[in-house]
Amino acid sequence: MAGKLRMDEISAITGYSVSTVSRVLSGKSYTSEKAREAIVDCARRLGVLQEMVSGRLLINDIVVFAPGRTFTPRGDHFYHEVTRGIAEACASHDVHISYCPLEEQRADVKLFLEKAAAKNISAIIIIGTDDQAIFSLAASLGKPCVLINSRDKDMRLDAVSPDHRAIGFSAMQHLFEQGHRRVLTVTCLRRETLFLRLEGIKDAYRHFHMPFNAQQDLIVIEAYSSQDTEIALNHWLDTHPRDQWPDVILPGGKGIITGVQNALLSRGLRIPEDISLMTTDLASRLEGSPEMPITGFAVPCRELGYEAIQLIQNRLNRPQSSIYNLLLQGKLVDRGTVANATRHAAREEIRNAFS
């Protein structure tokens, strides 16, 4: 009865019928934008939104921007899982989701404005973009906007990301605690998030009082290319004596992982019998995939999509609340590709004895 009275009150204040008020507060799409804005604003002032079930989504259309490879066959598995999370979070609501490609750098501003500023769009999600000009435009549109795996340096937009620095630290911590000391990190640094992960790895070196030598402990690839990775790793192995080869290789990204595996296979090196393999970039829902049967830290990809929708809802309910920067933690998935360091040490002693 109390809920009916509040709808009667909103109806009286706004001049719209109780049935129209009910449709708007139920998240139904067949009401005018003018009516929706008036009813939601009145409900917010009366405190009704705070009393509503948190799962109710008061928007009709969301546009999701992501790098173009997200939408290609066998493209970016990480971002594909994120979009699945968004779709699942909206599945029980009357919400239409449209998708649009938008690259990480020098994004198409005209295309972004054409899609994001459309009258029917109620909220915006931007995945994996570093273009600050896009963030400025998004902040100017007056619509809820959430970044996924990106950061607005001017702190105007809500964001949710994996805690890249913590994931990098935890991965290296796991290896150090297993007794490993020779670890070769292979990464691409084309995005700020990847720098954060590398900084977490360096934090672990400092924490364990281990020196980090970029010439010895790091390979940087220009892009997530398995071919470029294979060439770079083979060059590194060719230019370092065997006794300086790593006990563990720590690649980030599916293409880099494949390149590392190919290089080791071509040399007859077994995983983990000869060199262990671990990654900081398992997509959490794909960790059991035959394509990624390696130990690593699973990134909560689909959960990023769920949390983005919750941030949109929070922004609708509390438009003046502080800007959120939500960080999700990774989880260690042990798939048997990291040997204990004592096994490596024993093999080295045997090898040296017969050399």
From TrEMBL:
Signal peptide: none annotated. It comes from the Bacteria. Residues 5-47 form the HTH lacI-type domain. Keywords: DNA-binding, Repressor, Transcription, Transcription regulation. PANTHER family: HTH-TYPE TRANSCRIPTIONAL REPRESSOR CYTR, LACI-RELATED TRANSCRIPTIONAL REPRESSOR. Pfam families: Peripla_BP_1. PROSITE patterns: HTH_LACI_2. InterPro entries: HTH_LacI, Lambda_DNA-bd_dom_sf, Peripla_BP/Lac1_sug-bd_dom, Peripla_BP_I. This is LacI family transcriptional regulator.
